[in-house]
Design a protein that fits this description.
Strand content: under 5%
Largest sheet: 2 strands, antiparallel
Order of helices and strands: HHHEEHHHHHHHHHHHHEHHHHEHH
Radius of gyration: 24 Å
Structural class: mainly alpha
Number of helices: 21
Helix content: 55-70%
Number of strands: 4
Strand order of the largest sheet: 1-2
Distance between the termini: 40 Å
Length: 558
């Protein structure tokens, strides 16, 4: 006969008539982006077709810039960590019934996402000879007369801008969510516009639509795993709030369970939530969508996904594993060890065989996700700081690389040069462009004096300090493998004989040229002088530290 649960152990529902307290100033960056997205939808409905593009572009850039300014102002309002201060004094604030947390790591992530999204919008807006990277009319059948008529008429798909703004809203909320329901809403707000954007490529329409369908179907499966995991964790803790979950793990579960009998429920819940988050970062074995989607999506959207979405996804993962599950670090760390090793090794080996430049960079993104996972495994303030720096550095570099890809074509007015053999001789025909790409590839490889070297050093150092030296050894070996295919492209550009006249390079417009210039500047600056970012912008631990693994001393708040 099983023991019955005392009635007093079951908490009665609390009914309140008090409205929730919402600090709109704290949420102002997200509210600005949300308002701009709503206005952009109204512009699509009421503005003249001939003026929509200029209005939408101006609104999108202004809103992102305004949100970034508000984020910087919030950083300035945060108290600095000083000796003797308790962690909760510098952790930040929660609002909207503790569903959103704004602290130093979150503000850094949001600021990085806004900058990367602003740069991506410049790529989205670029038009060459009256042609953009997006379909003239996505609702038409590829190859049909209706599509041809829209192309000849110069139709523009300006719906791209509100979709990007709503995706950006999800990216900003994703790492700021302080409970799992808010995080799930942010995940869907971020993902649904991206499913549509991936199918809007102007060239190779069927391939683009196939990529969008794959992304949607696999994304739906990952969201289902994420939701099921939330349900299991809720059953264990009796709450979806990260602070309550953390407390429940420390006490062995909610009051319904005695003696830690619900531990299997927690472990399965953590594993299923991890599936949803690992899918978004593209870690093995949940990475198969990345090469197809990166290859089929319009290149500006690929750049946005490889930078902003990756930063948001890892920000959410860091908050979940360090905050909600911080007290169970011994339980989930072995799982992430296995995932990190598989991600670095398998992706590096498969990348060597790739011939398509965008698929190669997709597998490269998977490998870099493995590198960042080593910092997550560390579960320390140093690991958090290293991961944030790595994400920012990688974001600038990858946007610059995809900006270069938009300029190299198979022939004049042709599609982008996909096969890496078509890049042979680029160093002779366009030395500046080849030099920029070479710098980005060297940064991906982690060569000194580039941002990639500092990023890898930061995450590997944190992992070694946390006792994960074998994981670092695997990471170093994987870096050596990835350096091979990065250097192979450089050798092709400078030392291989081109087929025929060589690759055709279209003239970089002001917008694309600015993106490449910003990428080069950030890659060099963060590689040569990273101190301001590492010492000032990233959260610094205070002396009043809590137990290792809880990570509240590094600036996160629950």
């Amino acid at each position: 006969m099983t023991d019955s649960v005392p009635a007093a152990a079951i908490a009665s529902p609390v009914i309140t008539e008090e409205p929730p307290s919402i600090d709109y100033a704290v949420l102002s960056p997200m509210l600005v982006v949300f308002a701009a997205g709503v206005v952009a939808v109204l512009i699509e409905a009421f503005a003249p077709a001939a003026r929509r593009h200029s209005i939408q572009l101006g609104l999108a850039l202004a809103s992102v810039l305004g949100a970034f300014v508000l984020t910087v102002l919030q950083v300035g309002a945060m108290p600095d960590a000083e000796a003797g201060m308790a962690p909760e004094e510098v952790a930040g604030v929660t609002t909207a019934m503790n569903s959103v947390a704004i602290d130093r790591p979150t503000l850094f992530l949001q600021g990085t996402i806004l900058v990367l999204s602003f740069i991506s919008l410049l790529l989205v807006a670029e038009r060459r000879s009256g042609e953009s990277a997006f379909a003239a009319q996505a609702a038409t059948v590829p190859g049909s007369e209706e599509e041809r008529s829209h192309v000849l008429a110069g139709s523009r798909h300006t719906e791209v801008y509100p979709l990007v703004l709503f995706a950006l809203l999800g990216m900003l909320l994703f790492p700021a969510a302080n409970d799992f329901l808010t995080m799930f809403v942010a995940l869907e707000v971020m993902s649904l516009p991206l499913y549509l954007l991936c199918g809007l490529a102007r060239r190779r329409r069927l391939f683009s639509q196939e990529a969008a369908v794959k992304y949607f179907l696999l994304g739906a499966f990952s969201s289902a795993f994420f939701l099921f995991g939330i349900a299991l964790v809720y059953g264990y803790a009796g709450s979806v709030n990260f602070a309550d979950i953390h407390e429940a793990i420390e006490t062995g579960g909610s009051t319904l369970f005695v003696g830690g009998t619900a531990t299997p429920l927690l472990l399965v819940g953590i594993a299923m939530i991890a599936v949803g988050l690992l899918f978004k970062v593209g870690a093995v074995p949940f990475h198969n969508w990345k090469p197809d989607v990166y290859q089929g999506a319009p290149t500006p959207i690929t750049a946005l996904m490889a930078s902003g979405v990756l930063v948001a996804a890892f920000g959410a993962m860091l908050r979940v594993f360090l905050m909600a599950f911080g007290a169970a670090v011994a339980d989930w760390r072995p799982m992430l060890w296995v995932v990190a090793i598989l991600t670095m090794v398998l992706a590096a080996v498969v990348a060597v065989t790739q011939r398509d430049i965008k698929r190669l960079l997709a597998y490269s993104s998977v490998v870099h996700a493995g590198f960042v996972l080593t910092a997550v495994v560390a579960a320390t303030p140093e690991g958090l700081a290293g991961a944030l720096f790595y994400l920012a550095a990688y974001g600038f570099t990858t946007i610059g690389a995809f900006a270069v890809i938009t300029l190299v074509r198979t022939h004049e007015n042709g599609p982008e040069a996909a096969d890496i053999s078509q890049w042979a001789g680029l160093g002779r025909t366009s030395p500046l462009l080849a030099g920029a790409l070479a710098l980005f590839l060297l940064a991906f490889a982690g060569i000194p004096l580039t941002s990639g070297f500092i990023g890898k050093f930061a995450v590997f150092q944190a992992a070694v300090a946390a006792g994960a030296t074998p994981l670092v050894v695997v990471g170093v070996l994987a870096s050596a493998v990835t350096a091979f295919f990065y250097v192979r492209i450089i050798v092709l550009m400078y030392f291989a004989e081109p087929e025929g006249a060589g690759p055709s390079v279209i003239r970089a417009g002001t917008l694309t040229g600015s993106v490449i210039g910003l990428g080069v500047a950030a890659t060099l600056l963060l590689g040569v002088y990273p101190t301001p970012v590492l010492d000032t912008l990233l959260p610094q631990p205070v002396e009043a530290a809590l137990e290792p693994g809880m990570a509240t001393e590094d600036g996160f708040t629950r």
